[in-house]
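Supplementary Methods. Inverse-folding protocol.

Structures were first reduced to a discrete structure-token string of length 371. This string, shown here, constituted the complete conditioning input.
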């Protein structure tokens, strides 16, 4: 009897093949090998197990063995041994063809799933699909787009894709910590991307930590590692919005040379506001910092002086240390800036104008780029 998990038609003609092999001593014909290979593919598509399929063929060979004419009807021991060897070789061929067909079907299915997953991710992160259709497809990948989601993006100096060991390592860490909590980890444009439920901020925070550590292991420092976390937004469009916020945070970190490795869009909202009206910002930079062009050597060092001053909380001693200057030399630079611009960095209102202009200079790439 065939194995109960395998329909009988998967064994059609198999006993007859073994009977003929036992008499002729031949190997399987190409057509017979192709037939077993096709049966392996069909079994994979039908969801049958390869182990059960092979077991059923071995069981069928064992059941047919006493009736094989080349074995039972052989005149001598040598002939029986030869016939038995041919039957075993044919069984090996059949099993190998079944496994090859099964594995080929599995590979096709995996590639098809990978293509579908990649297409879904592209549509999800760029909002290029009908939202109703996108929500229906999302269920297959464990997301409920009607809920609120947060997107985090991690970037290092090395590109990564879904098959990268680093990607798998971060994914394993998330799964081990949180289990299947409707979290999607993927890659986009060589960056790691995590889509998580918006009401579970601990998921993206843990992703940020794991990604930071994993990416930093590729380097001797964290200077070229950034993780950005968008805000939580509802609905299918919320994923796109949170993803774009994370990308904007990464872009701002690059332009403004921000120090934190983990950036949160909610803490950077002032910068998109400042960057929204580029004409007004260019006018501010030109008006406030433009006079620094009159300094010997140009404006670059004096802009760096203001940068260090504001980044150190307007503490001259700390700013001087960051620039490897004496406090006296640093104070002289501040005085020179006041002389050229007419704005006193120690005055609260004028300091705000200067700091906003310095931020604008970073956003616009000034003085390296003309306004």
């Amino acid at each position: 009897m065939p194995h109960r998990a395998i329909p009988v038609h998967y064994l059609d003609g198999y006993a007859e093949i073994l009977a003929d092999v036992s008499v002729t001593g031949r190997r399987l014909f190409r057509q017979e090998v192709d037939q077993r290979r096709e049966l392996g593919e069909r079994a994979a598509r039908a969801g049958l197990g390869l182990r059960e399929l092979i077991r059923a063929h071995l069981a069928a060979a064992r059941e047919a063995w006493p009736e094989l004419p080349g074995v039972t009807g052989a005149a001598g021991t040598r002939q029986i041994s030869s016939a038995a060897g041919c039957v075993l070789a044919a069984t090996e061929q059949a099993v190998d063809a079944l496994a090859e067909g099964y594995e080929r079907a599995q590979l096709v299915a995996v590639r098809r799933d990978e293509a579908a997953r990649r297409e879904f991710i592209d549509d999800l992160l760029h909002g290029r699909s009908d939202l109703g259709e996108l929500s229906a497809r999302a269920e297959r990948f464990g997301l409920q787009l009607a809920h609120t989601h947060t997107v985090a993006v991690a970037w290092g100096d090395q590109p990564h894709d879904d098959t990268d060991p680093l990607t798998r390592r971060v994914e394993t860490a998330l799964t081990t910590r949180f289990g299947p909590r409707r979290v999607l980890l993927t890659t986009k444009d060589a960056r790691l991307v995590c889509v998580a439920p918006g009401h579970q901020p601990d998921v993206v925070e843990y992703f940020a930590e794991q990604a930071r550590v994993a990416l930093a292991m590729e380097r001797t420092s964290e200077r070229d590692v950034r993780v950005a976390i968008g805000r939580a937004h509802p609905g299918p469009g919320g994923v796109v919005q949170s993803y774009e916020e994370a990308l904007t945070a990464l872009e701002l970190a690059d332009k403004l040379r921000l120090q934190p490795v983990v950036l949160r869009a909610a803490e950077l909202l002032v910068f998109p506001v400042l960057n929204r009206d580029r004409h007004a910002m260019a006018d501010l930079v030109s008006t406030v910092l433009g006079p620094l062009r009159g300094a010997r050597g140009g404006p670059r060092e004096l802009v760096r002086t203001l940068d260090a001053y504001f980044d150190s909380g307007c503490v001259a001693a700390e700013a001087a240390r960051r620039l490897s200057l004496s406090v006296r030399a640093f104070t002289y630079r501040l005085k020179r800036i006041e002389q050229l611009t007419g704005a006193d960095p120690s005055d609260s209102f004028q300091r705000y104008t200067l700091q906003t202009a310095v931020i604008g200079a970073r956003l616009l790439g000034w003085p390296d780029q003309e306004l």
